[in-house]
Design goal:
Order of helices and strands: HHHHHEHHEEEEHHEHHEEHHEEH
Low-confidence stretches: 1-53, 63-89, 91-102, 115-125
Structural class: alpha+beta
Radius of gyration: 42 Å
Shape: elongated
Helix content: 55-70%
Number of strands: 10
Number of helices: 14
Strand content: 15-25%
């Protein structure tokens, strides 16, 4: 019947489309004949509603343009009932439009229509996915906002370290003043008249210097080799050139603080700490993921319990009505059953809202589509390992960035003491030797012939005679701060070791607690089943049934609470030690990861 209606409408549309579609039909018909049916069929069998909407629009438009009535039967043959409805809706809209609009306007409206279809159905279509704890952790460590921040912070520290390394490599530098024009009145001494006088000068200067510089880490000085060329032209006068083809020199601080020496001590530790922080942050992200994961898992478990309780309460209430009619239970017990049903209904509504909030928080943290309906798989496969305290302390002291922080604080304290001592006196030494020449015959090559020797030695000193004990006070202050830092670091090391031991002890206990909670959950479920059966045959009252139900629910929640504690302590130990005790190896960066691959690619480009 619907096909007959469509056939009539197509016939009515024939005179509307003939003059606008004829050239297009002649040009596209060969291509259309071979591929249109396959295209329509392929888009139609897809379960995605957006692709289906495209199929509706494209197919209807093609049918109208080419008047291919037989293809409508083909299209309807492969479409299910729901999609047939969408085809008819789309066809009706297209029919109304084409009677009033041109083909171009129709296509524009069609794309807007498809966009509207996608936007309006996005809220209605929610894809249900299953997610394990390991998968959630992997997604969080790769795609969460915190992972993005940590990766970029590590990359920033990496380039800081590369900058430090570049300070100890030779540096080639060009300094130039290609053009310097000056016209001014200046003071000049006239040796013939033995008096100063003002003269008008106008000149043009140019200068270039090419140098290679190398820092000396052990002394804090710098050696260099350079070459320069200068040109000066007095406007209205002659042109002069000056050159230093080669000059070798050294600049050295004699008593000052050597920053290069201390950088060689601190910068590698800084970068090592950055790497350890990056490893540690990935485990902290795992711990945060566990928190959001179990929040949603608890919400799902409580919702299942609430749904089960509601179903049981409804069944018991309906059974109570029948038994009350037979005077098998008292009116008080019936009221108690009705009250339990109302409470179960309220709990169900509350938990349905709570599960939406918990799911949104987890998906937001993982940066996943919030329209997904996530079903979590409980992480029941706990590891049967027992961690040795001594091994955990050893790995923690080797890998934990907090230990590197302690080491850095000690180094910086020692550095401040030396800086205070070195700042009391200062002396600089500058030595250079080279060849140079000048010429005023306007021939530039002459400055490179008959070169003359050039030597320069300069020593400058700054020695305070009376500073009223200022330098001494700075030294004493730096030494006092060093002692405070040393004492604080010693206490931090003690607290750190105690924290590792306490965490290992707690983790080793969790396996037994999880096993006990699992057994208690099983027993509580069995006890409730027996109690419910005895209540149904009238051996027990409603009070004992409610008590058994509460114990069952409590045991179920306690089991998942113990499971969460187990995984929390498991990853807390990984945070402290940066060691995988299940595989007996230290955690490290996976260089096949995209982030590390990008770093290696940048290095290759250099």
């Amino acid at each position: 019947m619907r096909y007959i209606i469509l056939k009539k409408r197509l016939a009515n549309l024939k005179h509307h489309t003939a003059h606008t579609t004829k050239p297009l039909r002649v040009f596209l018909f060969p291509l259309y004949k071979k591929s249109s049916q396959f295209l329509v069929w392929f888009l139609t069998i897809k379960s995605n509603l957006y692709l289906y909407a495209i199929a509706c629009f494209v197919s209807t438009s093609i049918l109208l343009i080419f008047k291919a009535k037989q293809n409508m039967l083909f299209f309807l043959l492969y479409a299910n009932n729901i999609r047939v409805k969408w085809i008819l809706i789309n066809y009706y809209i297209t029919y109304k439009l084409i009677t009033q609009m041109k083909i171009i306007k129709l296509l524009i409206f069609g794309f807007l229509y498809l966009f509207f279809i996608k936007a309006s159905t996005a809220q209605q279509i929610s894809q249900k996915v299953q997610l394990t704890m390991e998968e959630a952790i992997t997604i969080a460590q790769d795609s969460s906002l915190r992972a993005f921040i940590e990766k970029n912070e590590y990359l920033s520290d990496y380039w800081d370290f590369r900058t430090y390394q570049a300070e100890f490599l030779p540096k080639l530098e060009l300094r130039a003043t290609p053009f310097n024009y000056e016209r001014a009145v200046r003071e000049e001494y006239n040796s013939q008249n033995e008096e100063y006088q003002y003269i008008q000068s106008e000149r043009l200067k140019s200068f270039a210097n090419l140098s290679v510089t190398q820092n000396i880490p052990f002394t804090g000085g710098r050696i260099y080799i350079d070459s320069d060329l200068g040109r000066i032209q007095n406007i209205g006068g002659k042109i002069e050139y000056s050159s230093t083809p080669i000059r070798i020199g050294i600049r050295q601080d004699l008593f000052d603080f050597n920053s290069f020496k201390w950088k060689k001590k601190t910068e590698p530790v800084e970068f090592e700490r950055s790497k350890k922080n990056f490893f540690q942050s990935s485990q902290e992200i795992a711990n945060t993921t566990i928190y959001y994961f179990f929040n949603l898992l608890f919400a799902q478990i409580e919702l299942k319990i609430a749904q089960n309780d509601f179903a049981i309460a409804d069944t018991l209430y309906q059974d109570g009505l029948k038994r009350h009619e037979k005077d098998a239970i008292s009116l008080e017990d019936l009221y108690s059953l009705e009250l339990s049903l109302m409470d179960a209904s309220s709990d169900l509504e509350r938990l349905e809202k709570n599960i939406r909030r918990s799911q949104t928080r987890l998906l937001s943290f993982l940066r996943m589509d919030k329209s997904l309906d996530v079903e979590l798989i409980p992480p029941d496969n706990i590891h049967s390992i027992n961690i040795e305290e001594q091994l955990a302390i050893e790995m923690a002291r080797k890998n934990n960035p907090d230990i590197l922080n302690i080491k850095l604080d000690k180094l910086y304290a020692e550095q401040n003491v030396e800086r205070a001592k070195k700042s009391r006196y200062s002396a600089d030494l500058s030595i250079s030797m080279g060849l140079n020449q000048t010429t005023d015959d306007n021939i530039i090559r002459n400055v490179y012939t008959d070169l003359e020797n050039q030597q320069r030695v300069e020593v400058s000193m700054n020695i305070p005679i009376v500073d009223w004990g200022l330098s001494k006070k700075r030294i004493k202050l730096a030494e006092s701060n060093r002692e405070v830092v040393m004492a604080r670091m010693e206490q931090q090391e003690i607290d750190f070791n105690e924290n590792v031991i306490r965490t290992v002890e707690e983790f080793n206990m969790q396996k037994k607690l999880v096993e006990r909670a699992a057994k208690a959950d099983t027993l509580a479920q069995m006890m409730y089943d027996v109690t419910q059966q005895r209540y149904m045959i009238g051996e027990l009252d409603i009070i004992k049934l409610n008590s058994a139900q509460n114990k069952k629910n409590s045991a179920r929640k306690d089991y998942f609470g113990r499971l969460q504690e187990y995984w929390r302590y498991f990853y807390e130990i990984r945070v402290l030690t940066l060691y995988d005790f299940t595989k007996n190896k230290e955690l490290s960066i996976d260089y096949s990861d995209f982030f590390q691959a990008s770093v290696l690619k940048t290095l290759k480009e250099e």
